[in-house]
Amino acid sequence: MDDDEVLDAVGSRLRGFRQALGLNLAELANRSGISISTISRLERGLVRPGLEQLLPLARVYGLPLDELVAAPRVGDPRVHLKAVRKHGLTFIPLGVRAGGLQAFKVIYKPISKSRPPHYNTHPGREWLYVLDGSVNLVLADQRTLLKTGEAAEFDTMTPHWIANARDDQPAEIIAIYGHQGERIHLTDL
């Protein structure tokens, strides 16, 4: 698809996103700061959008610009995973998006049962899914054993600690951190 074809298809994409959110033209105009008539002309393909229209629409729709206009993908889409090790854990980023939610595969080495909990607190929420093995999730004084295929979500202002539940095999989880959680967990890796 060449640039003209991409630009010609933008209007119908914009209409589709608006309709998918259940917004009428007036509601979208109110949220985006773009006039109703301009939005209508954009959606009908009578004018080609510029950044001054696309940026506010992307914010309202919660989409990156390239997805909003169906820009052709360029370059290698693979994420080049680079493991980082800290405190006996291995963090592997599963995406390259800066800011917002970040997903990581986290590997917990087998540990001694006598290791005392090291509690963390920070603003935000954390979500985790156990890929393999089992982990102990301790929230304040409540201990939960999570096994392969189980997930948990919690407010990270609650004192929390996660550790491998076994001393004979590693445990692997997928963890999703918000911006605050990423800072707490990974700044000095």
Automatic annotation (TrEMBL):
Keywords, comma-separated and alphabetical: DNA-binding
Database matches in InterPro entries: Cro/C1-type_HTH (IPR001387), Cupin_2 (IPR013096), Lambda_DNA-bd_dom_sf (IPR010982), RmlC-like_jellyroll (IPR014710), RmlC_Cupin_sf (IPR011051), TransReg_Diox_bact_type (IPR050807)
Residue stretches making up the HTH cro/C1-type domain: 14-68
The protein's name: XRE family transcriptional regulator
Organism name: Tamaricihabitans halophyticus
GO MF terms held by the record: DNA binding; DNA-binding transcription factor activity
Cited Pfam families: Cupin_2, HTH_31
Cellular component GO terms held in the UniProt record: cytosol
